[in-house]
């Protein structure tokens, strides 16, 4: 008996081994085996098939052992991973290894920690009065703050929000400040509680659900285009309930579950123990346990981030990709796959319904809907008829030079109009969110005499001034140096330019001395506990103004927020990336959607130096259709996706080595171009990152097939690069940096 094996290493291709007769009953598709490979007597391999004959001229070696009690990969998952291997140009062993949860690669597949019944946590009566006494127990305070904001919630939600919550919760229970209640899971075959718990649908939601139900049982991809607050999640929940009633499984992908822990809670509350959650907040043993529940069929619904596309849900009936436009679905490190696109392939392989949901779909998804490849479902209005917030634009270019109406510098780029709206909102007892996608106090420090710009020693980027810590920091590699007022080169005085969230926070506090202001970015919150604590306090309306980066823009639902201010809408427009305008529009639409989600109408103020930019002008009127039309026309002229396919080749190494390797790749590619076009080789936009020089080549073609000959030519060079640099292929690259 022969077996085809992918070895868990960065090695392209698969290998054929003999199976000893004693192991034949155990060697089945999708199992892991130990095989001799190179100098290793027991490398991990994945069984992918059973060839009838061995390759010519190959001396076969024997499989050494079988590592698992049962196959870790189902047949559909093996097909999905083989497709991804071919399309994304990734060694198969890397993909199969990445498809398993951390820790499972180092242990047998059949054992994991036991999973408890569904548990709920809740604050006890009078617990709010004990918060001040928990000053020396920050973890307990964070848990109690979250429970006071959310009430009785599934423990899964609490663990998604605060990954290390369990010890703190146990301590709170002992103090009589919280309680934990266990509910036994429903017996197999029992009716799921979804129909009883589900709210009434709007006509648009009902129509969307009816279309999904009609398509059940066959591969049908849908684009669910719904404005922020239109109830897309409820459509997902009820579609999944109907799939489960037919005995089918479900898979739900979300961009960043750590930023929206309530989503895990909503699914747990609706479906109980039938839900397994896979995300980075769980420990490796916990992720193993959740994965195992899915593989054994003890849970049939999986909610997770991009890697959950490989979750072992059997007999999938519906796949949901929420916020399908989000860049988090693209894996940038390791195997460069896109989870949304793999969801399309998996739905086709499993004959499942696919729901791609977004208020601002990616242009690739929109074009697929226009061409009839996806069916379009629309939710044009918010639930309960709440209006979309009014958006006002302030042109900052008219306020240069300190003329009438100019913002005072100590107010951190807050225009008079934004300052006025902040005062009005505070006076009305309502909440505000201020968004700026730049951390720090000042984004650039220069010498007034010699012009020296403080840059990172390891990356080709400017250092950001963080005033609270009095340091200059690189946001890519973490390099940090103390700030001095004198230039180290000439002794001249230095000054800071640009505005970050830290300066905006200081400006708001100067403008509104009595307001309760908090900042939410990766400098202000060091972990999930801090993040959950800030969001909980804001949800309980203990904060008046929340200043932050895109962490404040995604998925949060705060009924008290009636004002959203975009401090500077231009930060992403200047990036050397053809998707810059699309990302800007999507981010503005998402952050604007945080306003007016309660009983009061919302207002949004966008500050910009480029009010005429389509991304900003269309966001002002919530006009996604107009923006998409113009952007698609521009991309058509330049053959950018979705009007063409792209492959990026990224090179990292020493300065001389990266250049030599990139030039060798360029020479190898030219004879194989055919219908493809090559841009480069050239230094990357970030020429140096973490001490390594970076070059890239970009290939554009009408279709993916036209890029295959180019890849074959490049792969021969990449196997032994002349400069010793690392070479990475990226099909359908998301970032150009």
Give the tags.
737 residues, alpha/beta, GIY-YIG endonuclease, 7-stranded parallel β-sheet, 6-stranded parallel β-sheet, 20 helices, 30 strands, 23% strand, globular, nucleotide-binding, PriA_CRR
Q: If strands are numbered along the chain, what order do they take across the biggest sheet?
A: 11-12-10-13-14-9-15
Structural class: alpha/beta
Helical run tally:
20
Oligomer: single chain
Strand-residue proportion? 15-25%
Principal-axes shape call: globular
The fourth-level CATH homologous superfamily of the largest domain is P-loop containing nucleotide triphosphate hydrolases
What is the level 1 CATH name of the largest domain?
Alpha Beta
Quote the average pLDDT. 87
**Beta strand count:** 30
Reported for the largest beta sheet, the result is: 7 strands, parallel
CATH topology of the largest domain: Rossmann fold
Q: How far apart lie the N and C ends?
A: 48 Å
Radius of gyration: 27 Å
| Structural domain tally | 6
Task: Provide the helix percentage.
Answer: 25-40%
**Which CATH architecture of the largest domain?**
3-Layer(aba) Sandwich
| Low-confidence spans | 185-196, 401-407
Keywords: ATP-binding, DNA replication, DNA-binding, Helicase, Hydrolase, Isomerase, Metal-binding, Nucleotide-binding, Primosome, Zinc
InterPro entries: DEAD/DEAH_box_helicase_dom, Helicase_ATP-bd, Helicase_C-like, P-loop_NTPase, PriA, PriA_3primeBD, PriA_3primeBD_sf, PriA_C
Cofactor: Zn(2+)
Catalytic activity: Couples ATP hydrolysis with the unwinding of duplex DNA by translocating in the 3'-5' direction; ATP + H2O = ADP + phosphate + H(+)
């Amino acid at each position: 008996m022969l077996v085809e094996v992918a070895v868990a290493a960065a090695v392209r291709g698969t290998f054929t081994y003999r199976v000893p007769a004693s192991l034949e009953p155990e060697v089945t598709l999708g199992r892991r085996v130990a095989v001799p490979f190179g100098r290793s007597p027991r490398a991990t391999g994945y069984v992918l098939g059973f060839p009838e004959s061995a390759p010519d001229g190959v001396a076969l070696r024997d499989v050494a052992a079988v590592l698992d009690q049962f196959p870790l990969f189902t047949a559909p998952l093996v097909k999905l991973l083989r497709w991804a291997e071919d399309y994304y140009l990734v060694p198969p062993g890397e993909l199969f290894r990445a498809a398993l949860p951390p820790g499972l690669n180092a242990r047998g597949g059949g054992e994991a920690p036991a999973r408890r019944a569904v548990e709920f946590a809740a604050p006890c009566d009078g617990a709010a009065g004990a918060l001040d006494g928990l000053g020396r127990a920050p973890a307990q305070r964070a848990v109690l703050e979250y429970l006071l904001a959310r009430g009785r919630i599934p423990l899964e939600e609490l663990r998604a929000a605060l990954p290390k919550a369990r010890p703190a919760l146990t301590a709170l229970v002992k103090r009589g400040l919280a309680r934990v209640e266990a509910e036994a899971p429903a017996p197999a075959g029992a009716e799921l509680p979804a129909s009883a718990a589900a709210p009434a649908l709007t006509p648009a939601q009902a129509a969307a659900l009816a279309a999904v139900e009609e398509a059940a049982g066959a591969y049908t991809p849908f684009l669910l285009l719904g404005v922020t607050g239109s109830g897309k999640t409820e459509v997902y929940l009820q579609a999944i309930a109907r799939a489960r009633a037919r005995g089918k499984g479900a898979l739900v992908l979300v961009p960043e579950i750590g930023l929206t822990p309530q989503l895990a809670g909503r699914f747990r509350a609706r479906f109980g123990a039938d839900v397994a959650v896979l995300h980075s907040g769980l420990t490796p043993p916990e992720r193993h346990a959740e994965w195992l529940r899915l593989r054994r069929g003890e849970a049939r619904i999986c909610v997770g981030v991009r890697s959950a596309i490989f979750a072992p849900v059997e007999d999938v009936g519906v796949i949901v990709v929420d916020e399908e436009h989000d860049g988090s679905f693209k894996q940038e490190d390791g195997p460069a796959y896109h989870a949304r696109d793999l969801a399309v392939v998996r739905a086709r392989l499993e004959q499942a319904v696919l729901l791609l949901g977004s208020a601002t779909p990616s242009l690739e998804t929109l074009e697929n809907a226009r061409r009839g490849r996806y069916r379009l479902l629309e939710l044009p209005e918010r639930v309960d008829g709440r209006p979309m917030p009014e958006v006002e634009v302030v042109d900052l270019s008219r306020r240069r030079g300190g003329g009438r109406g100019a913002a005072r510098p100590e107010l951190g780029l807050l225009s008079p109009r934004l300052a006025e709206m902040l005062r009005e909102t505070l006076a009305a007892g309502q909440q505000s969110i201020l968004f700026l996608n730049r951390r720090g106090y000042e984004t650039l420090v220069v010498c007034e005499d010699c012009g020296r710009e403080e840059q990172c020693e390891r990356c080709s980027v400017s250092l950001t001034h963080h005033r609270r810590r009095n340091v200059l920091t690189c946001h890519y590699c973490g390099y940090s140096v103390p700030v001095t007022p004198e230039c180290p080169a000439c002794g001249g005085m230095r000054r800071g330019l640009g505005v970050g969230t830290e300066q905006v926070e200081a400006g708001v506090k100067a403008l509104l001395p009595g307001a309760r202001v908090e900042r939410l970015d990766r400098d202000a919150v060091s972990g999930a506990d801090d993040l959950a604590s800030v969001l909980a306090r804001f949800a309980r309306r203990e904060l008046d103004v929340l200043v932050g980066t895109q962490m404040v823009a995604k998925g949060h639902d705060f009924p008290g927020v009636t004002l959203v201010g975009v401090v500077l809408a231009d930060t992403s427009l200047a990036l050397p990336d053809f998707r810059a305008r699309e990302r800007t529009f999507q981010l503005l639409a998402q952050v604007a959607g945080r306003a007016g989600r309660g009983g009061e109408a919302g207002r949004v103020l966008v500050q910009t130096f480029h009010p005429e930019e389509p991304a900003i002008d269309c966001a002002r009127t919530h006009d996604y259709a107009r923006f998409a039309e113009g952007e698609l026309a521009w991309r058509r002229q330049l053959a950018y996706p979705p009007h063409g396919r792209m492959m990026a080749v990224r090179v990292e190494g020493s300065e001389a080595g990266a250049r030599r390797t990139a030039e060798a790749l360029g020479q190898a590619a030219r004879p194989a171009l055919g219908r493809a076009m090559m841009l480069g080789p050239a230094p990357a936009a970030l020429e140096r990152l973490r001490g390594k020089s970076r070059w890239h080549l970009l290939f554009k073609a009408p279709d993916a097939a036209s890029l295959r000959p180019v890849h074959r030519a490049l792969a021969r060079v990449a196997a032994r690069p002349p400069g010793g640099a690392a070479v990475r292929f990226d099909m359908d690259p998301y970032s150009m940096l």
